[in-house]
Amino acid sequence: MIEDLLDHLAHDWPFADGHLEGRDLAGAILRGGMVSRTAFRGATFTGSRLSDMTFHGCDFTGCRFEDAVLDGCRFMACTAPESVWHGSRQSSGTFMDCAMAGGVLAGSRVRSVTWMRCDLAGADLSGCAFETAALMECGLDGIALAGSTLRNTAIITADLRRATLDGLTCDTVLFTGCDLTGRDLTSLTLARANLTGAKLDRAKLAGVDLGGAMLMEASLRGADLQGVRAPGALFFRADLRGADLGRANLGGAVFQGAVAAGARFDRAQADLAVFDGADLRAASFREAHLHHARFRHAALERADFSASRLLRTDFHCARTEGAVFHGPSGSRLETVPERAVAEFYDTRTVAPSAARR
User: Fold this and answer.
1) What's the rounded Cα separation, in Å, for the pair 138 and 117?
2) Domains (range + CATH), the chain
3) Distances in Å between the alpha carbon of 176 and those of 65, 78, 171, 221, 226?
4) Both ends of the chain: CA-CA distance in Å?
5) How do residues 184-217 score in pLDDT, each as one tens digit?
6) What does each C-alpha distance from 242 to 161, 255, 272, 286, 308 come to in angstroms?
7) Which among 116, 214, 129, 110 is positioned nearest to 158, based on CA atoms?
8) Which residue, of 67, 177, 202, 264, has the greatest Cβ tally within 10 A?
């Protein structure tokens, strides 16, 4: 049967409905073929070289791909639970709608490979090096990423609450739409990370590098962000209710439209930060540095700015009823009436004076 497979590939013929369970394909060279509905259960591909191969509906349960080299291969709707890919090198490939629960990819080198809608629950990806890779809408419950490196890699819409992340190194990664609720992420570096729409409620991020990170519309309710380094980070429309950002470096960070009622920014370095339109009711900015920060149209009822350091801090049209400004130093810009009128003027409801005559 192995000879039949190799003969089909040699003549560019598609191969289908084969039975290669338990066969030894170690060191085999498979190139440029289409294999459909073939059972490889328990087969060995150790040290094999596969290039430009397409496998559709094949069964790779328990197969061994240790130290295999895969380039440009596509696995579509295949089953490969408990398969072993330890030390493999994969590039420019695709896994789509594959069942790979419990698989072992530890120590693999992966470049430009995409997993889409795959089941990788309980898989071991520890010690892997991912570059320009993507795991999109995959089942990653209990996945192990300890000691791995993610470089320019995307993990999209995944539940990572039980993932093992110890020693994970991140360099420009996407965790968009991922659930990291309650996770301790203090060992990670998330500079330039894209966490748009991520769930980070009650997450521990104290001291983490979030410089230039994107957390737009992320949920960070009750998160511990004390001492984070987040200059230039984007918290646009993020939910920060009850979060603690004390002593954080937030220079130039953007909180426009964020919901941060009851959040704590005590002693934060937030010079040039933008809080326009944010809900900051009962938030605390005690002893915070707010030079040239903007709070235009922000809700600041009952907010506490005691002993804060201001310098031309802009409170244009901010609602400050009940806010505390006890002992702040510096200067602040109040509402400019002419600008406020222009901002609220709407020709659909207010006719020009000439039109009324």
Assistant:
1) 5
2) 203-357 (2.160.20.80)
3) 31, 26, 15, 17, 22
4) 94
5) 999 998 999 999 999 999 999 999 999 999 999 9
6) 21, 15, 23, 15, 20
7) 116
8) 264
